[in-house]
Amino acid sequence: MNPRLFFAVAGCWVIAVAVSVYAVERYASRPGTASPVSMSWPESTQLTLAPDKPTALLFAHPKCPCTQATIREFQRIEARHPSAFETTVVFPVTPNLVEEWRDTRLVSEARNIQSAQIVFDNGGIESDRFACTVSGQVLLFAPDGHLLYSGGITAARGHEGMNGGQEAFEYQLTHPESPGTTFPVFGCGLVRNTPSGNPQESL
């Protein structure tokens, strides 16, 4: 092969790889919008607020691969703070896919969170009530219904390990008198109701 041609091809390949790596990293580190910390427990919700300890809600798309890291981090938090809070994992789903999504890998992993109750949210009604749009969104409420924490507990999509969100969650868990705090949340889009009232699947 002509040396000039070889170096030209090699240069293009290196550039293509660099662009691909940059795109993947940018995607992994691009956060979604967390629920506002000014919100309080919605009166219309069908979910249960624990009367004697904080309540954690984790909203997750049943097929989001990014949220597997969130589930594992949640298990680690639970192990460090046994019986310190109640947990509900909310899976927004479209009504016609409820049965198909009951047994995904992520749902199975969520069942390993010892304190967790699993809820399938038809049409994303509860995610709308709590202003959640991103899989991996974690909310922590005090027993009186005020929001202690809103955000993710991973540093990026699918990344495990200690991070600011996890530390903030645990701080609020042990200091419920502190003002609410937030952290970026990383994950796929949740099933949401459209303006017409029909649920729409997102990933």
Key structural traits:
203 residues, alpha/beta, six-stranded mixed β-sheet, two-stranded antiparallel sheet, 5 helices, 8 strands, 31% helix, 18% strand
Structure write-up:
It is a single chain. The chain is α/β, with parallel strands linked by helices and 203 residues long. It has 5 helices and 8 strands. The chain has helices at residues 3-28, 67-80, 105-110, 125-129, 164-174, and strands at 55-59, 86-93, 116-122, 137-141, 147-151, 181-182, 192-193, 199-200. Helix 3 (105-110) links the parallel strand 2 and strand 3 (116-122). The protein is globular and about 40 Å long. The termini are far apart. The relative contact order is 0.21.
Topology:
Blueprint: H1 3-28, E1 55-59, H2 67-80, E2 86-93, H3 105-110, E3 116-122, H4 125-129, E4 137-141, E5 147-151, H5 164-174, E6 181-182, E7 192-193, E8 199-200
Coarse shape: globular
Helical residue percent band: 25-40%
Largest sheet: 6 strands, mixed
End-to-end separation? 45 Å
Percent of residues in β-strands: 15-25%
Oligomer: single chain
E-strand count: 8
Structural class: alpha/beta
**CA-based gyration radius:** 19 Å
Mean pLDDT: 80
Q: Give the H and E element order.
A: HEHEHEHEEHEEE
Parts with pLDDT < 50 across at least 5 consecutive residues: 5-31
Count of DSSP-assigned helices: 5
Strand order within the widest beta sheet: 3-2-1-4-5-6
Describe this structure in a few short sentences:
By secondary structure, the protein is an alpha/beta fold.
